[in-house]
Every structure is written in structure tokens, then in C-alpha cells.
Amino acid sequence: MADGEEVMLSLSAERFEKLQAIVRKNLGAGKAFNIVLNHIDPDSLSCGFAFKHFLRRLGVTNSCIRILFVGEAGEEQNEMVIDRYGLNRHMLPLEEFFSKTNGNDIFVLVDSGNPNDGRLRSVSGKFQPTIVIDHHATAAPEETEDSFIWMERCGSCATMLFLLLEEAGFLDFSPDNGDDMFVPVILAFGIYTDTHNLINAGEEDVTAYTVLAKLGSRTDLSRLIHIQESPAFVAAEDYARNHRYHDGLRLVACAGCIPANKIVYVAKIANKMIGWRGVSLAVVFAVTGDKKIIFSIRCSDTSMHSPLSAMLRREFGDSAGVKVSDDGLLLEGGGHINMQLNLIRNDSISNKFVEVITELMRDIFLCDELR
User: Which of 95, 243, 290, 367 has the CB geometry, 3.0–4.6 Å to 254, for a possible disulfide?
Assistant: First the structure.
């Protein structure tokens, strides 16, 4: 989508009827529906449970609906959503459960469209989704007579699920029907977070958020929106602020050593630093407890896509990459370096190692090639 181009998001009655027919056909055949989340964040979680609500209203029983996930909760907002509503009791690890799936099961991808995505780990490429609903500009299977592939660019996938429920007439939620009363709340929160606090929201995102915020508990939504950062994240951010290096419009920052399940910290810090005045390239890296160096890249100059991609490929091979963000305003990406030894076993070794890695990252990302 070109800068400034506005595309109206919609789900026609004809398209909705096709999706409904596919669900009913497979329901009649007694098949189970596996809703796959290839990452965990508020948008992905809300879409998974909203599609479950859609299936239940069409007559699919709870026993025939599974939400399968990959990855860690990571960020505090994800943990709060999961803990607040006990979602972990209704989700299964994809890799552990995949061997138990039936060859006739239906697979559904929400907030992602590529069944070959590396984030699916050992399951990547081992299933073909019948239904895909995604707002990212990524590869997806071609639609056939027996499949439904809905890919549109918008602020969040939760907005697309809102339109689906609206078209179906399923936006009424009642405990008497066994509905999950938290679905409107987490859909609204998914829109809020994926559009960066509604800053990058389109008209459809704002409309969906406004309606959903009124349908759900405003107290719950407020608590989610105003969640305080954890002491661990604050420490990592402070470390990065105190260990940052400028060269013109470019910035490289080290977030120190972080737990393996908190790698999302580097992306959050990079998102903040790219918004600083006078910064067009922000690279934040950290050393993790599982013998990796991970880094996130944000660049406001999209013309740097080719030189940045070429440099990443040369320096890191297939373990790093960068792409244009969904709103077309940024380059975003990152990568990792695997270490064979645990070099953060004590403070003395880890401090020296971090110094060396800092020098390496500065040499790579503050090079003349990226001026």
C-alpha cells in the first residue's frame, strides 16, 4: 500500500457466506478446528478467541475447537491478558499437540497467513490452512473452492474479526449462552496495541475500537491499557539509555543481559528510540540467557531497505532481516547470533563479553555503508 493510500476494509455478504458454508460443511463432517497463533500478543490472542466465539455461534462445540500457540507470553501486557482471563487453560502448545491432530482436522490461521513461517518452528510447512484471516503483507496460500483466505491491510487483525462478528450478527455476548465475556475487551485491546495506542489506526480500526470498548468492561480495558512496565523492563530500558551510541541520525544501544523469555524487550525499546528526535535508525541488542545475541532494528527511512537488507544478509545470513511495516512508515526487523558457550555465567565474564559485542554492533550498524 503506497504512502497516503487509503483502502476501505470490508467483508462482503458473498465472502461471509462462503466462510460460513466452509465452516458448516466441515462441522457436518465432524471435523475439529485448530486455531493457530504463531506468536502471542493482544491482537493474536483476541483474534483466536474471537474466532472461537464465531465458531461456537455456528454450532461448533468447545470440544471441537482448539487454540494452539507457539512462543512465550514474554511482554507483561500479554501475561496480564492471559492471567486475567485464565486463557492458558484454553490453549495448547502447537508443537506438543500437533502429533495428536487428526489428518482431517481443519487448520485456521489468524493474525498470520504463512503456514511456512519459521515462528511455527518444527510444525512449519506441515499443515495447510483452510481458513486464513490476516492483516500483514505476507505470503499466504492461494484460495480455492474449499478454502477462505482473507488478507487485507489494516491496523490490526482484531479489526477484521470485529467486522466478521458484525456481519454474522454475533456481537452480542451473554453468559447465558456460554459466551466468553472478555472477547470484546481483548479485541479492543488488540486494536489499541497493534495500532500503537491508536496513533496508526485507520477509520475502520477506530470504529471497531469504539464499539468494542462499549460492549466490554471499561474497567478491564482501562487496566490493560494502563498496565505499568515491569521492573525488569525498566532496568533493561535504563541500561539501553545509558549504553547508547549516536553517529548522526543512527543509534545503537545495548540493553545488557536479559532472560530468554523477555526478548520482546529489545523490540519495545527500539520502538521507543526510533521516535526520538534526530534518530532515523535505531538498533537495540541484548545478550540472552539461552546463549544468543538478539537485536531489533527500526528505520524511518524506507529507502534504506535495499542497503540494510544487503548488509544484514552479508553479516548475519538467514538469521536476520528487515521489512516495511504494515503501515508503510518504517523498516522493522532484527535477528540473532547463536553462541556455542555460555558467556554470561558470571558478572566479570558477561561485562567483558557485552563490551566486545557492543563494539561489534557499533562497527556493523554505524558503518559508512548505512550513512
Answer: 243
Residue ranges with strand state E in the chain: 33-37, 65-69, 91-93, 106-110, 131-134, 148-151, 244-247, 250-258, 281-288, 292-299, 320-324, 331-338
**C-alpha span between 8 and 19 (Å, rounded):** 20
Specify the pTM. 0.81
Q: pLDDT tens, 101-145?
A: 888 899 999 999 999 998 899 999 999 999 999 998 788 899 999
Backbone phi, psi, residue 17, to 5°: -65, -35
Name the residue among 64, 61, 56, 59 with its Cα closest to residue 33: 64
Identify the bridge partners of residue 133 per DSSP, sorted by sequence position.
Answer: 110, 150
Task: Count the Cβ atoms, other than its own, within 10 Å of residue 356.
Answer: 10
Q: At residue 194, what is the residue type?
A: D
In order of 61, 103, 149, 180, 334, the CA distances from 32 in angstroms are: 9, 10, 19, 20, 36
